[in-house]
Automatic annotation (TrEMBL), chains A, B:
Protein name per its UniProtKB record: ATP-grasp ribosomal peptide maturase
Signal sequence segment: none
SUPFAM superfamilies per record: Glutathione synthetase ATP-binding domain-like (SSF56059)
Gene name tied to this protein: tgmB
Protein's organism: Streptomyces lutosisoli
MvdD-like pre-ATP grasp domain ranges (all copies): 2-112
Pfam families, A to Z: ATPgraspMvdD
Entry-linked InterPro entries: GRASP_SAV_5884 (IPR026449), MvdD-like_ATPgrasp (IPR048936)
């Protein structure tokens, strides 16, 4: 039973997990979908009353019947490295690869449909609230008057992107910014804004959830600092305990979203309350592991190498 | 309780359903996501311990608490009609709109995540087979030798696209074509091919499934005709009965895929067996209704106007 890792060639985080799988002696195939077709060969057979299929990568043949789990880490676009790439070739290759993988009875970290759904931040806030997290008051609106009222009610408000940074900028290029009631909200009519009450915090929390295993790390904040991801606070990440309420909420969140892996960001306020800021199904964990020594890569490898099959075989996603 | 129809302005099929909803006196809002922001205003509020939101379209205000169902018919790209459209504005607007709709407790025809999954043709074949349909032997491969062997085994084979027609061509521009063992398969190494045993047919079948209601129509084939969608056969669509085995299989397929609506294409062979060719979650029904008089638009309207809530409120998709 083999683990399939879908990721680009340069991926240090994947390397960490690959090393752990090697230590455990778990067979593993690593594929960048960009290399298909070309370095990799695929065949799926719906011919003899049942389904079978295989992937061949660098001489390793992976049969769909022998597929233990799929880790969708940081895959390239299918057929991106083809001699004559085209949107249509990408679409056909994506269909061929993922259509075959979806047909297999395997465990996913994370299933692409689950991941895609979980990327919707408004839905995420709704699920977080239902799961029992404390969620800062938030609105998403194209109505300037509604934005104005929100800022008047909550005073200190941050504006965020709902979909991530604008294209062409670095992923980390859009820090969360603080606005006040004097701001000009007329531009909101031209594009939706996500506004959230600013939580004055004494620490940032990063919690990594892998199945039922949780790893939490805490970094003390500099007073008045808005976005802990930017700039040096003079503090490092340290291991911290997970409050019971948070552990239950993470469990419900993962069950509800169907995710096997998620990295959560919280703001810890002066009373010690952890406020839910974001659940990132593809969040990094390498920097936390390096700073705290928490065995996150090993836990990912353990999850991927389990033989426990999915109860739902292929549908329902 | 209001029905929301997401579709472009020009959509005759939607017009048919809108007329039926009017007849039933069911409140309805029609929105092209391309008109958001602009003609439409959106606000979602995650502020007061629970979720609320509204859409305002042409003076009609639709509250998320009063949302009965969503019909994802043929929506334009979010923000496509904006004064300054951009991929980022589209991404933000999609997040705002669908994130809000996913947060509501509503019924979907079809939920975008379910629809996206169901578009994967290889997975579709697998689900069709599991559901009890007769599925023609099929392979999807980038290995020329495997393709050659398949054609030698099944003799008459058709090649199809897995993802749909190539871009820039008309949607109907890629007819299914017949190939023989003498063909050159070397090009398959550069791009995956979907090969399927050719089923000599005496008729095409189009079956429309809406919840538990099925409408089947039959069009007699011209001997030797490969693709019934192209050219005039001299025969029209006529109402036909649904065999029990097919009704059970459609039920299982819809439950398994989570689709509320799907249009199925079958080839009826000389023995009367219906061979599953395709299940299209967004398939047209207007032409069938016009030729056969089957009340499909009315059934869609009925499904959308039911007050029965989803058992799963927002998650699991």
């Amino acid at each position: 039973m083999t683990v399939l890792i879908l990721t680009a060639e340069q991926d240090v985080t994947a390397d960490m997990v690959v090393a752990k799988l090697h230590e455990r002696g778990v067979p593993m195939v690593r594929l960048d979908p960009a290399d298909l077709p070309g370095k990799a060969v695929l065949s799926a057979d719906y011919a003899h009353g049942d389904f079978d299929g295989y992937l061949s990568v660098n001489g390793h043949v992976l049969s769909m019947g022998g597929l233990r789990s799929v880790w969708v880490r940081r895959p390239g676009e299918p057929a991106a490295h083809a001699a004559e790439p085209s949107p249509w070739l990408t679409a056909e290759t994506r269909q061929a690869l993922f259509g075959m993988l979806y047909s297999a009875s395997t465990r996913w970290m994370n299933h692409p449909r689950r991941a895609e759904q979980a990327r919707h931040k408004p839905w995420q806030l709704r699920v977080a609230h239902s799961s029992g997290f404390a969620v800062p008051p938030t609105i998403i609106t194209t109505a300037p008057r509604v934005a104005q009222q929100f800022v008047e009610e909550y005073r200190d408000v941050v504006v965020k992107s709902a979909s991530g940074p604008p294209p062409g900028e670095l992923p980390a290029a859009l820090p969360t910014t603080l606005i006040g009631p004097g701001a000009d909200f007329s531009g909101i009519a031209a594009g939706p804004a996500l506004l959230q009450q600013y939580i004055p915090k004494r620490a940032d929390i990063r919690l990594t959830g892998i199945g039922s295993r949780l790893f939490a790390a805490r970094k003390a904040a500099v007073p008045g600092q808005i976005d802990g991801r930017f700039g040096d606070t003079g503090h490092g990440w340290e291991i911290t305990a997970v409050p019971d309420r948070i552990a239950r909420a993470v469990h419900d969140y993962l069950v509800y979203t169907g995710l096997a892996y998620a990295a959560f960001d919280f703001a810890e306020d002066e009373d010690g309350v952890w406020w839910f800021l974001e659940g990132n199904q593809g969040g990094q964990f390498g920097f936390i592991e390096l700073e705290t020594g928490q065995p996150i890569a090993e836990e990912v490898a353990l999850w991927l190498s389990q033989r426990r099959p999915e109860l739902r075989i292929a549908g329902g996603h």
